[in-house]
Amino acid sequence: MKTEAPIEPAMRSNEDCEGKIFNLLQLREEMLKLDHKRKGVAEDGKGLHLIHLLLISATSVDENKLDSSIESLSELFQNVCLSGDSIQRVAAYFADGLVAKLLTRKSPFYDMIMKEPTPEEEFLAFTELYKVSPYYQFAHFTANQAIIEAFEKEEEYNNRALHVIDFDVSYGFQWPSLIQSLSDKTTNSNRITLRITAFGRSVEELHETETRLVCFAKGFRNMVFEFQGLLRGSSFSNIKRRNNETLAVNLVFHLNTLTSFSKISDTLKSVHSLNPAIVILVEQDGSRNPRSFLARFMESLHYFAAMFDSLDDCLPLDSAERLGIEKNHLGREIKSFINYEKDVTNCMKHERMETWKGRMEGHGFEGLKLSSKSVMQAKLLLKIRSQYCPVQCDGENGGFRVFERDENTAISLGWQDRCLLTASAWHCV
Fold this sequence. Notes:
- By secondary structure, the protein is α/β, with parallel strands linked by helices.
- The protein has 14 helices and 9 strands.
- Strand 4, helix 10 and strand 5 form a beta-alpha-beta unit.
């Protein structure tokens, strides 16, 4: 496995804190070099021991006890392994996050630990996770099914025109399946118009996403496809509205990226002012702001441990694709989650379904019942995925589960008994 370059002595700080952390990071480097020799070292009870060490380390870091933090983290780095089992891997990234929390944002060690993957590495990790895990596919397929059903309800007066406003288009992976599904429902003489207004992080990202989607849509001659890209934070006045079109708002993995509750509230007020036929909300299932750092730490540890565990059903332990997903996607999220005070622009803040429900209802939205077809589609996705799984899955769908919740107004994807993400649909009242 590829490791980071050794820490140069010139980076050593004269301060006692930086010096001790320098020694800790030297130990970390040595342990990473030994990864390939320590595969499979996990034993019964090892996972509980690692969780215990993580809790001790997190407590010491939270209480600013440098010496005890260094001591417990040193023991952690001697027991974790980026090529070991899932608990060793997830513990390694949490240990890195705790080291970063000891440092100031200006420390060169902080930048080394929190180093962002290149855009190419980030894209590849996302793509691989999308292919092998039902995680993002569940979110996108469930959202698209609800959008299609809202469109069909208004077919008598929407001029067969659908307009989707996507608040966080990312790489645009959600939309090819919607294009395909809409095309299957029409003919060359009775075409459907699909317009996507997409908010993105950069002009480059929007351009690349537009190019992919326009190229894909050209293969469907019974559809008219239009794309409008806007930078995140752009005024809503830039959104082009047309009469008699079904308007759907897509809030898939968006609200949890906003840095304050007031920004979430402003976004929901703006969405309500558009009076869309449907609003799709998909978010990770967790707790954004428990009472203390330790409560947040343990909540995120349980969540990401389930995510790393779920990869056992998707890819072999020694898979290069899996290592890339863990380092450049999940590992990056873990370190940002622990250091969310320093890294608010890149950190996702998870909420429980009940919290999102209260927030949506408080802004004038009412939950819509998801159709039985949405639930069947989600379960079919897991069944199909398990048949083509590159590793042997136990049971019909391996460890993945679909949960119907809140009187069928929401469905969740879970790993074992842990909900990972929840999809729901809303309309204005």
